[in-house]
Design brief:
single chain; 433 residues; mainly alpha; two-stranded antiparallel sheet; 62% helix
Length: 433
């Protein structure tokens, strides 16, 4: 640990200076030698560090969302090149480069906190060893050694012996009870934070190895905190418990106001947003407009929760715009029929009125003020209709005189057979026997 402390010695002085400044403020309220003054100084140090790390936390959220989006593509690459690890790594790096994501971005807040964590550990270890460090001089060192948090000295550990604990002015039972409670709270807060992420803010429509990995970490991290926590001083336990509580609250805020698409948190958020927008008829916050804008831009790629949100707006007579605003759309407002089926109230296309058979035959009824040309056109059309009707009659209905003669193609053949072309027919002479 001395090697690690020497690596982070460049930040030990700034950390000790921040603690001393907060101690000077709280010392005037609670007393300079109390555990409240030194404990709240450590809590204030955590809050200051986490406020400075908010931009990295936002970047972590974006990186995590991008990694969740790439999970189906990553799974395809793993299946395609499962026998060629080198080609698999090359394709993964190519996918990261094309999408502009970095897997290490999700670890940035933890990596950024590491120097402060080890610097604080080195400062508290110096207090326990009765050594001045950073800007903590001998008077501040004596004051910190007298500080107790619920009966446990600031620099005491769970694994310390009775002699060392008695030198700090405390009993071994108090130290182990306080440190055990703080270790349990630290592990429980870590477990709840990870479980909240897995149960509420993960896209349940995509089953990937990433989800299995997160489930495993949900149980591994609390165990790691419990194992390493017995070697942490009480002041470091205060630091880590505070940062876990901050992370849990920060994550709850993000899950409630900016959930992952396809997750249960998004379904709950869109339900609240639907109630708000339909009640007020507009959006109020910029975050609401950003989410509505993203939903509109997806088009056919919307999930079931987003489609339900758009349908709810349509039924209320509202339309989501491309810029994230919501306006009234009377032409697209939905109404309910008697059987309960939703239909749109948009103007329907008018079908032409069907004419009767008499109107089709006569070319339609004309108004009294029609021009002569219209009348002539009407008469021409009626004549054409009459001629067409006559041509459609069957030929069997023609009179017998108009039918062509049978047995020959012209009248000459009929004359040769003893028949006259016209007039009464000559009677046939009786045959001679």
């Amino acid at each position: 640990m001395d090697t690690i402390a020497s690596l982070f010695s460049f930040i030990t002085t700034p950390v000790s200076w921040v603690i001393v400044q907060f101690h000077s403020v709280y010392g005037k309220i609670f007393g300079p030698d109390t555990g409240w003054a030194w404990g709240l100084s450590i809590v204030s140090l955590v809050i200051l560090i986490r406020i400075c790390l908010i931009p990295l936390f936002v970047k972590q959220i974006k990186a995590t969302r991008a990694m969740q989006t790439l999970q189906p593509e990553m799974k395809k690459i793993q299946e395609r090149y499962k026998n060629d690890k080198q080609r698999q790594s090359e394709e993964m790096m190519k996918l990261y480069k094309e999408s502009g994501t970095n897997p290490l971005s999700s670890c940035l807040p933890i990596l950024a906190q590491s120097p402060f964590f080890f610097a604080l550990y080195h400062v508290l270890n110096g207090i326990a060893s009765n050594q001045t460090i950073g800007v903590i001089n001998e008077s501040l060192l004596a004051s910190a050694q007298k500080a107790h948090i619920f009966g446990a000295p600031l620099a005491a550990k769970f694994t310390d012996g009775s002699a060392k604990v008695e030198a700090l002015g405390a009993s071994l039972t108090d130290v182990r009870v306080v440190t055990a409670i703080m270790i349990v709270l630290m592990s429980a807060s870590q477990f709840y934070t990870q479980r909240q992420l897995m149960t509420k803010n993960v896209d349940t429509t995509v089953k990937t190895p990433f989800m299995q990995q997160q489930k495993m970490l949900m149980y591994v991290f609390p165990v790691m905190f419990a194992v390493f926590g017995i070697n942490f001083p009480v002041g470091v336990l205060v630091y880590w418990l505070t940062t876990n509580v901050w992370t849990m609250g920060q994550q709850m805020y993000v899950i409630r106001n900016n959930p992952t698409p396809g997750s249960k948190a998004q379904a709950a958020y869109l339900e609240r947003l639907t109630h708000h927008v339909t009640h007020h008829g507009k959006t109020r916050r910029r975050s609401e407009k950003t989410i509505i804008k993203a939903i509109v831009a997806k088009g056919r790629d919307r999930n079931e929760f987003e489609r339900g949100f758009i349908n709810a707006l349509t039924k209320s007579g509202l339309v989501a715009q491309a810029d994230g605003t919501v306006v009234k759309g009377e032409a697209q407002a939905a109404t309910l029929t008697e059987d309960g089926v939703a239909t749109t109230a948009a103007a329907k296309r008018q079908q032409p009125k069907r004419q009767t058979k008499a109107q089709r035959q006569s070319g339609g009824t004309k108004a009294a003020g029609d021009s002569p040309s219209d009348a002539s056109d009407s008469s021409d059309s009626s004549q054409k209709t009459t001629s067409l009707e006559k041509s459609d009659e069957p030929q069997d209905a023609k009179p017998a005189a108009q039918q062509p003669p049978k047995g020959g193609s012209n009248g000459r053949s009929r004359a040769q057979s003893g028949q006259r072309k016209g007039g009464p027919q000559r009677p046939k002479s009786p045959s001679k026997k």
